[in-house]
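From the pipeline queue, job 12 of 40. The input is one protein chain; the requested action is below.

Action: predict structure.
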Amino acid sequence: MNIPGLSLIHEEALRDINRTLSRLIAHESHLNIESLIHKTFSILKTRTGKYPATALNCILNMGKGVYKTDDSDLVKLFIDYVIDLGFQSPMIGGVGNDWQIKANPAHILNIRTWLELIELNPIWSTRLLSYLIIHISIYGVFIKDIDLFPRDVTQLLNSRVEPVYNLVKQLCRLFPVYFNDIGAEGNLREISTRIDEISHRRDPLIHFLRKQSHVESSNRLIDFMKATLKFWETKKKKKEILEAFVPPSIYTAIDIKGPYVEGVHKVISQFKEKGITLPEGLLKLRDDEMKSIVGGVSGVPGQDIERVELAVALYKLFDQKYNLDFIEIDKHIAQLQPEAFPDFNRLRDAFKEPDLN
């Protein structure tokens, strides 16, 4: 593994190590297993950057063998090495001209690997659980709808998490995966389509936003929507805020003035004049309040007022989909079937308690 001339077979060598680890751990003494763990992680330390997927698969396979020994000291040693190896952060690098988000593909694999290890024995894995919470809190998390990550959360909750319930709850709150529809369906599809059709699909920013929400849905859409509203508020002063969310070709095509910016800028500015913090303050704005504010805007085409109303509605839908919050919780409760939940009215009453605000 340390011979540069054999670099072409290094990944295959890692796979061979992976295939033999569990068998070796099952048949070796405690002392030999410690030595095996140390040697394996010494190799992985130098190769994880180049072969992250293979290294993570190797860690998972080794972990399964270590946990099967029922030796808490060995498990603790193994977790120390796993944590020392580091975490694959999202490393989002914008959007390419192929309209694909540039991100670290090993990020989601790293989360899944650590979760599988935790599930083997949650109470022995509290340090790994804590470090996962810390890493996601600091570096963020990037999960696409098509990753079907809710299954992973279900699998975690079905393991023996009772002794570490509070830690698991903290972790699960960080995952933006509590939704029913993959991509854009229902109101989200209707509103995203309508806001694009108003301008006959000629506004490059909104057209890309629509396509992104339909095809490349992820929690990143919330920040994209915030950036769009901020750009409408400030025009040329904040165009650069969009650069991280759109392809270079789309960014170049976005104009800082003209029919797709001037009207919505006037409408958005009205919110600011009313003392509403943009864009976060829009989440708590009721429909009747918004109608009252935009109704006071003069000299702006009706289609621009509608575009702003739809943009705010879209922002709320993205936030409801990917964030755990009680804002407009009534709409979520209305989707539940009362006959499936005992004492359903008690749930309604609980959410009406004033100390939730």
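Job complete. The two ends are 58 Å apart (CA to CA).
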